[in-house]
Design brief:
Helix 2 links the parallel strand 2 and strand 3. Helix 8 crosses helix 10. This protein has one domain: 3-Layer(aba) Sandwich (UDP-N-acetylmuramoyl-L-alanine:D-glutamate ligase), CATH 3.40.1190.20. The chain contains 12 helices and 9 strands. The chain is 42% helix and 11% strand. It has 295 residues and is an alpha/beta fold. It is globular and about 45 Å long. Strands 1-9-8-7-6-5-4-2-3 form a 9-stranded mixed beta sheet, with helices on both faces.
Length: 295
């Protein structure tokens, strides 16, 4: 994709090109396998919401490898989910976790997933495990084994403030919220990863200078669990474009913006002008994607 010098508002016309439509030759593996390590004993619902959204966003299979209680709830809601380790093409990590209370085994599992260098969505309680990735690749170049990781992080202002503090940059959540475009760009350059900064307007910035915004989401979207749904949608899109996300420096930015747009449109569909729940947003994703594809 073109690398805009200024911020580009992402719209349905661009988003539909980043939705993988299966053919008769596809199977559950060719449609993408998403590995998921989310949820905790304190917040098991985050795992349910993320998996629900991923399954409804077009991924071929989800392998859920989180805590036993969360796994039981995931299977009760989505019995087609696999809970045994195996090959995956992308990861979703961290939703519903807390870095402060994360146990050593979970930390080791998150680090092991990151070490696979697969396209990965990192949220919430796994953000502290993101290391500085170094310089960005030249536009269009394949990512070499020692190059920047194909990661997209999905913080809100407070989480980005904490993450940057861990890398020697002091900024308050209020300052991030006041200047989200500036801080999304600075974080992408500093960390060498794609940044989806959540807010009333979503800002997506990549190390190689993609700058995309998604706006217009209903205010009713500001409710518990909707960020977990966004993570699931994005995880599914990344898994269905795993090869491209590994080789195209800006594919993750396009996928992140597409996920934010689907998320916002699904919220509007679920709301119809009134209150919504996170699960309601996830349930509206298939019809939202169908409408986008129909043009």
């Amino acid at each position: 994709m073109a690398k805009p010098r200024e911020w580009l508002e992402w719209a349905a016309e661009e988003a539909r090109d980043w939705i993988a439509v299966p053919t008769r030759a596809d199977d559950k593996y060719s449609r993408g396998v998403l590995g998921v390590r989310t949820g905790s004993d304190e917040y098991p619902g985050a795992a349910v919401l993320g998996v629900e959204a991923a399954m409804r966003a077009g991924v071929g299979m989800v392998r859920y490898l989180g805590p036993a209680r969360a796994a039981d709830l995931v299977l009760a809601r989505r019995p087609e989910v696999v809970t045994e380790p195996g090959r995956v093409q992308a990861w979703l990590l961290g939703s519903g976790m807390s870095a402060a209370s994360r146990d050593p085994a979970t930390t080791a599992a998150v680090d092991a997933a990151l070490a696979e260098r697969l396209p990965t969505v990192v949220d919430a309680g796994a953000l502290d495990r993101v290391k500085r990735a170094g310089g960005a690749p030249e536009p269009g170049n394949t990512r070499e084994p020692g190059g920047p990781l194909p990661l997209v992080i999905t913080p809100h202002a407070r989480e980005l403030s904490s993450l940057l503090a861990g890398h020697g940059t002091t900024v308050t959540a209020a300052e991030v919220g006041a200047h989200p475009a500036e801080w999304a760009i600075r974080a992408a350059k500093l960390l060498g990863v794609t940044v989806l900064l959540k807010g009333s307007t979503t800002h997506v910035a990549s190390p190689s200078a993609a700058r995309l915004t998604v706006s217009g989401a209903t205010g009713w979207l500001a409710t518990a669990g909707t960020g977990d749904v966004l993570g699931g949608i994005l995880g599914a899109l990344v898994a269905t474009h795993a090869e491209l996300a590994t080789t195209d420096a800006d594919a993750l930015a396009a996928l992140a913006a597409t996920a934010a747009l689907i998320h916002g449109h699904a919220a509007s569909r679920a709301s119809a002008g009134g209150p919504i729940t996170a699960l309601g947003v996830a349930e509206a994703v298939p019809a939202t994607i169908a409408a986008l594809l129909a043009g």
